[in-house]
Amino acid sequence: MLTITPCTNPDLDGLACAVAYAEYYNKTGTPAQAIIFGQPRFEANFVINHFNYQLPPNNSQPDDWKQVAVVDTSRPDGLEPSIKLKNIIEVVDHRLLSDTDAFPNAKIWIEMVGAAATLIAEKFKQNNIKISTESATLIYGAIIANTLTLQSSNTTNRDREIARWLKPQINWPDNLTKKLFLDLEDMKGDKLLKTVQGETFAFPLNNQTISIGQLAMIGAKKLVATRHADLVTVLDKIKKDFRLDWNFINIIDVREKINIFFATDPAIQALLSHIFKVEFNNNYAIYPALLLRKEITPLIKKELEK
């Protein structure tokens, strides 16, 4: 049986890809199962709970994972360690930065769309295969979350077309999109640390270990104003816990359509100021557009390689 899995602690895009791609394979004659490792992140849990869906059961063991397809990732470091890289036969992703050489036996499928789930949905649409309401709902939510309501610069016409195709097939209330993004109520007390920790990924870049935390929310300016000291503490703790050379938080406000870069290290501030032409004041800088971490990382890599 083919095992389909995203990275550990997946976001909604990874979860949607795993569930829908397993459905696609089963409906086209290949037995497949979706497996989720760790705990899904905020927006994934929100959609699952809202629609009373269940996470795919994980009843198998590492010895059963003879053929694996990984979705919404193309780096081995975020995968469940028990998965053998030689057993991965397919990689589906939508990122510029990847480590495809780590998968010697895999068919690589990487295309630059806003959500990897768009690629999976296209297979249903192009082959005229009926998609279940659950998979359609998860994919629609993934596209909305990953493209910041179809507003981010990585949004493509393919994402928009699939969103239009899926919307009539699901029951997605108009007010649900707003609730998909964090607000201050979601981050009271120590929830701020836990939320940023869950949205932090450490990766090597130019012989350094770097992480970018990310919050997609409503009310970013108020968060920075009211929780400034807590954000500093969060950055310091994550840097220590992950043994990072440097880190910062990318705070996205989907209502105001701005990014706030929050960083305490002067070297990081200087780097971000140079790349994005912003000015830091009191550890943060405002960028007048929407940028996702997956768009920021290649720009930082390019600058560090100069």
Can you give a write-up of this model?
- The protein starts with a strand and ends with a helix.
- The protein has 306 residues and is an alpha/beta fold.
- It has helices at residues 12-27, 42-50, 116-126, 133-146, 157-166, 176-179, 191-198, 220-226, 228-241, 266-276, 293-304, and strands at 2-5, 32-34, 67-71, 88-93, 107-110, 200-205, 208-217, 246-253, 258-262, 284-287.
- It has 11 helices and 10 strands.
- The strands form 2 sheets. A 5-stranded parallel sheet has the order 2-1-3-4-5, covered by helices on one side. A 5-stranded mixed sheet has the order 6-7-8-9-10, sandwiched between helices.
- It folds into 2 domains: 2-179, Alpha-Beta Complex (inorganic pyrophosphatase (n-terminal core)), CATH 3.90.1640.10; 184-304, Diaminopimelate Epimerase, Chain A, domain 1 (Roll), CATH 3.10.310.20.
- Helix 1 (12-27) packs parallel to helix 3 (116-126) and helix 3 crosses helix 5.
- 38% of the residues lie in helices and 18% in strands.
Short summary:
The protein is an alpha/beta fold and 306 residues long. 38% of the residues lie in helices and 18% in strands. Helix 1 (12-27) packs antiparallel against helix 4 (133-146).
